[in-house]
From TrEMBL:
Native source organism of the sequence: Rhodoblastus sphagnicola
Known partners and oligomeric status: Tetramer of two alpha and two beta chains.
Name this protein carries in UniProt: Tryptophan synthase beta chain
Pathway: Amino-acid biosynthesis; L-tryptophan biosynthesis; L-tryptophan from chorismate: step 5/5
Keyword DNA damage assigned: no
Ranges for domain Tryptophan synthase beta chain-like PALP: 76-415
Functional note: The beta subunit is responsible for the synthesis of L-tryptophan from indole and L-serine.
Keywords from the UniProt entry: Amino-acid biosynthesis, Aromatic amino acid biosynthesis, Lyase, Pyridoxal phosphate, Tryptophan biosynthesis
Gene Ontology terms: cellular component: cytoplasm
Family according to the record: Belongs to the TrpB family.
Reaction catalysis annotation: (1S,2R)-1-C-(indol-3-yl)glycerol 3-phosphate + L-serine = D-glyceraldehyde 3-phosphate + L-tryptophan + H2O
């Protein structure tokens, strides 16, 4: 038999705790501020949106936070996810590098997002929540929360960014199959949605607008809570089961990654893979290169300003210090809808400021080229978001070839692209173009950042 390809763990090896990188950082992340008073937020400020257990996770400083057994039991549907050696891609590239990928597309919803959707729904169920609102870009998070809501008999309403709502009807159908209601955002159902439509009836929408709509509904209705699929600390926390499993799987493989790569929009799948490895480094282990890959049309880490900003367009959310393009910035419409967010999660932004990670921005067509190359070698069609990680992994493998270095590369294949084939159809038809943000609009959005004395 030829060399091993898959490295798998038994269900008993699903992590029992989430890993909290805050415990190992050399300096704590900046405080979250109230949008009205500009003072640090307290638990009571967040209670209209989240159950108390998630609020406590948001501000936690301990290294390990126990995963409830009922949540781990549901995780057994797809976890542990496989670590796969991309031997055919290595051969195609003729590289001395070893390429591995952690494959999160094996979940029921087809991405890493259920890793947080299930615990969020469970903690809401324990708190008596009957209804949840959320936003989604490409629909990976919306379909995952819809799936989680179906498990716990919670009604879910998803505000999906308009350009993705139009581009990805099958993702919408998946949400409805799980029992959720999917609404094109901006909508006429909320004040923030109506305001966005009044300003520009033809707007492609944005995650910032969709968040505003979902938060508004939750804030105005005491029987409704809000769930977020990325950006916040507790979401990053939930995703760390990815990296914890990968560490064990690399031990099985007798290998250890030199380069760790993941796409990054709000930062959840990136943090999920990278933070446990960074934790090893921060506790005295060896240094690795860790690369967050973002779209060139929405490069919050590469081009954003590190500043306090709102998480949404209507300024309903607390102020977080993050790399931001400005909360009023609306990225151009491109097919990686899950990466069309104006800000990077505060924890990811903080580790970037500390010099622990790198950022790289990639163009849309180059990413799809890499996605097709990967699919033809390894058989898995990546989600458009995940093609950014594939692109970077291929580029790093080719660098190793040019330099004659046999480095080990690991990337997170955060989801499959089975519901994104319209994007591939456009790519093969030559209709896909590299879209670019308007520099003037970006400058205007950055000029409107809130003034915060704490900076």
């Amino acid at each position: 038999m030829s060399a091993q390809v898959k490295y798998t763990l038994d269900e008993t090896q699903i992590p029992k705790d989430w890993y909290n990188i805050v415990a190992d950082l050399p300096s704590p992340p900046p405080t979250v501020l109230h949008p009205g008073t500009k003072q640090p937020v307290g638990p009571s400020d967040l209670e209209p949106l989240f159950p108390m257990e998630l609020i406590l996770q948001e501000v936690a400083t301990e290294r390990a936070i126990e995963i409830p057994e009922p949540v781990r039991d549901i995780f057994r549907l797809w976890r542990p996810s496989p670590l796969i050696r991309a031997r055919r891609l290595e051969k195609l590239l003729d590289t001395p590098a070893k390429i591995y990928f952690k494959y999160e597309g094996v979940s029921p919803a087809g991405s890493h997002k259920p890793n947080s959707a299930v615990p969020q729904a469970w903690f809401n169920k324990q708190a008596g929540t009957k209804k949840l609102t959320t936003e989604t870009g490409a629909g990976q998070w919306g379909s995952s929360l819809a799936f989680a809501g179906s498990l716990f008999d919670i009604d879910v309403t998803v505000y999906q960014v308009r350009c993705s709502y139009d581009q990805k009807p099958y993702r919408r159908a998946l949400m409805e199959t799980y029992g959720a209601r999917c609404v094109s955002s901006p909508s006429t159902e909320t004040e923030s949605g109506r305001a966005a439509l009044k300003e520009n009836p033809d707007t492609p929408g944005s995650l910032g607008i969709a968040i505003s709509e979902a938060v508004e509904v939750a804030a105005k209705n005491p029987d409704v809570k809000y769930a977020l699929g990325s950006v916040l600390n507790h979401v990053m926390l939930h995703q760390t089961i990815i990296g914890q499993e990968a560490i064990k799987q690399f031990e099985l493989a007798g290998d250890d990654p030199d380069v760790i790569i993941a796409c990054a929009g709000g930062g959840s799948n990136f943090a999920g893979l990278a933070f446990p490895f960074l934790g090893l480094q921060l506790r005295g282990g060896r240094k690795r290169r860790v690369i967050a890959v973002e779209p060139a049309a929405c490069p919050s880490l590469s081009r954003g300003k590190y500043a306090y900003d709102y998480g949404d367009t209507a300024h309903l959310t607390p102020l977080m210090k993050m790399h931001t393009l400005g909360s009023t910035f609306i990225p151009p419409g491109f097919h990686s809808g899950g990466l069309r967010y104006h800000g990077m999660g505060p924890l990811v932004s903080h580790v970037y400021e500390l010099g622990l990670i790198e950022a790289r921005a990639c163009e849309q067509i180059a990413c799809f080229e890499a996605g097709v190359q990967f699919a033809r070698a390894e058989g898995i069609v990546p989600a458009p978001e995940s093609t950014h990680a594939v692109r970077c992994a291929i580029d790093e493998a080719l660098r190793c070839k040019a330099e004659g270095k046999a480095e080990t590369i690991c990337f997170n294949l955060s989801g499959h692209g089975h519901f994104d084939m319209g994007a591939y159809i456009n790519y093969f038809a030559g209709k896909l173009v590299d879209v670019h943000y308007d520099a003037g609009e970006l400058a205007m959005a950055l000029s409107l950042l809130p003034a915060v004395a704490a900076e």
